[in-house]
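Blackboard transcription, Thursday session:
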Amino acid sequence: MNQGYSTVLFQIDTTQSASKQTQIREFFVTAILNRSLMPGDALPSTRVLSEQLDVSRNTVILAYQALTDSGYIEPKDRSGFIVSPEAPVGQIPETLSQPADDQVKWTEKFVQKPSKLNIISKPLNWREYDFPFNYGQADSTLFSHSEWRDCARQALGIRDFGITAGDFGYNDDPLLVDYICSHSLPRRGIQVKPSQILVTMGAQNALFLLIQLLVSNDKKVVIEDPFYPDLRELLKRHTSHIRTLPVDDDGVIIDDDIIASADMVIVTPSHQCPTTATLSRDRRKNLLALAQKHDVLVVEDDYEFEMNFIEAPSPALKSMDDSGHVIYVGSFSKSLFPGLRLGYLVASEQLIEEARSLRHLMLRHPPGQTQRTAAYFMALGHYDAQIKRLRRHFSNRRKILHENLDQENLLEETGAHFGGTSFWINGPEWLDARTLAEKAAEQSILIEPGHHFFNAETPPKNYFRMAYSSIHEDKITHGFEKLVDCVKSLKP
Amino acid sequence: MNQGYSTVLFQIDTTQSASKQTQIREFFVTAILNRSLMPGDALPSTRVLSEQLDVSRNTVILAYQALTDSGYIEPKDRSGFIVSPEAPVGQIPETLSQPADDQVKWTEKFVQKPSKLNIISKPLNWREYDFPFNYGQADSTLFSHSEWRDCARQALGIRDFGITAGDFGYNDDPLLVDYICSHSLPRRGIQVKPSQILVTMGAQNALFLLIQLLVSNDKKVVIEDPFYPDLRELLKRHTSHIRTLPVDDDGVIIDDDIIASADMVIVTPSHQCPTTATLSRDRRKNLLALAQKHDVLVVEDDYEFEMNFIEAPSPALKSMDDSGHVIYVGSFSKSLFPGLRLGYLVASEQLIEEARSLRHLMLRHPPGQTQRTAAYFMALGHYDAQIKRLRRHFSNRRKILHENLDQENLLEETGAHFGGTSFWINGPEWLDARTLAEKAAEQSILIEPGHHFFNAETPPKNYFRMAYSSIHEDKITHGFEKLVDCVKSLKP
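(Written on the board underneath:)
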């Protein structure tokens, strides 16, 4: 039996996000579980370890205290510590298999291969870029951390724990549903009962549920062009009857005949994705009249309505729907953060009942503690304060980027004047935005090429998306100027 | 303009889980957002409000302080507060729609109706029963709340926030994947690379992904009988070629011909669901040899292996697999809690790549903060301490229930002697367990009738499941005696 560690063979890694105290605890727990340290073995004294790791002695004392509290180690003699005789040990079976030599004929196994879909791939290392004009990530400097943490603490407290840790079955957290029903939706002019709301794993999950329930190969679906590629690709897996409608400054252009013969129409009326155009009131009325007359379902993806900062948002399409044909999809990814994975579906009870059952088979329900934390964040007013702060910053950022765009006639922006988190940019015809994105990346500038959004097999190449949701105000002008240099350098 | 509230028209609700301070904050936030209180309006003094609500003055002061911090109110004059002129206000559009009069012909819309599936419905009010022998809920009295909360605080801290709040794209939290790869799986004898692991929204989500990827109507699937009804019903939606294999005390009985002609076999080798029998070593070897010879995929649902408390668990089937035919499904629902919704899939990289893409379209990824909290809980050793505590309590509870069952020859238990969280009970032939469950519920006893688990159209009625994961040690004997009285009262 070894006598413990006189010197500890590890170093504090200052690049890690875990604190020094945590790293010390992790090291000893791992050593105890994998039996490098056995029950009864002595640990180095706090003085010795603090010198060796070059950390304060207090950090070591706190780490040892935590290890004592969780039963891994215990005090011995006057000032030493040993591994507790009661410490948990990892049960490692004698035979540890080698990684399998794959002999499966996988090509015959798959009934679908989603990896082959042509969807957006977002760079995860966007924080490493000096000028991140990327779309859809949260700017954590604008987020109310400490309030979120307070709400999480409350949601994880003993009072709520029994409920939020449990299997909700078919249900959601009533506090969250109540907030959506009585606060979020009325701001969009929508009045529904709680039984008409289903909480989902973000808007993506809501759309996935709808497609599985409502689209098979005999169904005709109409989408916008350009449009969100993930959803278009998903639809193509379910039906070959997809029609597209073009988009102008007033949003999607309604074609009466195409709508009349469809089973489902999917639209983004507040800010068209990706052009950010807002659907005009006349077109909304026409679309709803056609849907009602021909019994066509309309899916309204209202993915960033809270980001309207210049004017109050126009009421949702769903607020004008008096026949139940509009299915509304909401998201907290922009107003809170995308890693939260919370969104919701609003529709007739009959549809919600089926979506609830399918969600149950698919994943049960979004985690209880996540739902409850968000509910507290909203009920305590932090959500509204957060949106207000985002709007103020985004408005300022948008203004700066807009002024830059106005001065540069190589690049033209389109879209709504009410807000959003991005501009849709139309470059000169000779521009290939994919080449531009590569060249810009070399200058530490991140933009999103636009070809994926178009339905055509040979899509236009000169469009791209520039978001201002992750880039600091002070960097926009410099980043834009460098980007324009890149564009000019590509001119044939 | 009104002059604020001289009296506040609300009462502290002591039955609510939210604290008094929280209730006060929620009340004012709601009033400000819906404009019952306008900017500049005065709030009642802390003295007046504390008297009126019968709470300590300090509670009111803290609530006002928090409201000030978040910008809803501000101090005015010497000791008063007013609604801040900068306070966020709800934007309520002028037209608020009436709930729609549903005119959709829904019967023509659905391409599937999952609400019609014959699956388990778990009572959510189980905490109200004196003797909850229900299955699959966590006992929050056995959980390390404060350690979980510490880990959550760390995962929600500023250091981690930027990462855990972001869109992970196709990825998972590397800390969690690393822990599963280097700690959880080696205990089951499984050695894989991180790229062979996908984190899922519980085991249910892992199984759903597998079925969508690998099962269509030309595929032959073999399952156990009795078996988990949610999964069987889900399978029936994808293929009509389902064969079942009976189960005895050594687990599922392997039929060579049936396995040889199958595309996929789904098994629960550690603790068969619901009988809890452990699959014998000889049958495991035979199953794997057949799978390898005939290129059959084997799905191993290892849903509660940590709950083996009498002997070390036998190594997973996956640990004996050297050809890549076994797909392993793990879950944290039993060892942590079901509302967490975390599980994982372990398989060949080719399969994981497709499952990752499908998960991306379905829901993106399990929430980042949930993954990171669980990763810290594990890395800091709380997870092992937690399992140890659960095992100690469950072992004791199982022993008590076992002794009771042994003394009562009306009810016979089957299953593994190694642990688990439940007994599968075989009652006298004249017993209808559904009637028994109803009668027992009147006596505040909760059991789960077993008919759902059988594949036959007219399933045996005399089986039921009794779990000991949610009932306190002290209540088991009394609850069992009362249940036996119920059984006797039903004897024809």
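Lecturer's comment: The first strand of chain B starts at residue 73 and ends at 76.
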